[in-house]
């Protein structure tokens, strides 16, 4: 089930998809079947930091409707320390009121008891259908089973990445090993309700580098801003979005903040590419780059509008180089530019030049799975890229049947 391969990042680092959260020293993980999902698939993951350092940082959904585990994890992370993370699929535990928060608290207390830690040192994440409480009679015993199954092999990492899946087709994980002897590993899940400010997406990233908590937090926020927040499948920002970064310090190697952030960004970018490739109903992997905007924020805003526009997305699905839809979408963005200078390139074909028709549409070949859209605003020097997908029959069918 795993996606294997190696992606070059720079001469010093490589991202490898054959391993994940257990690759850095000091971490164990497990993924088990607890019975939360009625189909009897893996649905409970535990990631444990064995130290000697327990630094942690997190980035969460900006949705006003936040799930109980998000509220819990935000609360415990104020101390900047986590010894373990508990994640379940099969239920979001969102919009479940005080009882749902109590369920999260109980699950954190249970894992803390088994590990000999405190509940305030346990992060919790959930994913699945909103509005239903979790079956605690299955989740609590499942924690015992997950702890009993903990290990540090590549298989344990894959099991952990698998048990958080909902509509995902494949688990998504990666590890980056630095030649200086430290590493970063992680997994992510998510294939729909994906938009900037994250997605129906959970990610746990581990590192054995020695780095203080403020630098962990700063690096994570910058990396998320450039990677997870640049994936926009359908414009839906979830109630449960969470990215957690845990540091064990087990390598004993102190890493410069800028070097760590570069490596973390590379790892996160690879996980996001995997999320894009496995998006719900995907047939096209679309990259939208806006160049020469007045600011990076305006470049992101313009790219997001195109990424979320259904007319653009259906044209991508049809392999139709209908650049007029892209021009229309850009014109609706909160971005300053002169329409008479607008250029649009599709897979290398300059199909719109100076706000009007460029080369013939037949020169823009969109028949393959990769579509590159480049929009030049000629309004400044900033640029940004947002990843998205097409709007297919399969996407509609999958989401119309999700809760049944």
From TrEMBL:
Positions bearing the site annotation: Involved in the stabilization of negative charge on the oxyanion by the formation of the oxyanion hole: 127-128
Keyword Translocase: no
Keyword annotations of the record: Acyltransferase, Amino-acid biosynthesis, Arginine biosynthesis, Autocatalytic cleavage, Cytoplasm, Multifunctional enzyme, Transferase
EC number: 2.3.1.35, 2.3.1.1
Pfam families, per the entry: ArgJ (PF01960)
Catalytic activity entry: L-glutamate + acetyl-CoA = N-acetyl-L-glutamate + CoA + H(+); N(2)-acetyl-L-ornithine + L-glutamate = N-acetyl-L-glutamate + L-ornithine
Main location: cytoplasm
NCBIfam families: ArgJ, PRK05388.1
Protein name, per record: Arginine biosynthesis bifunctional protein ArgJ
Gene: argJ
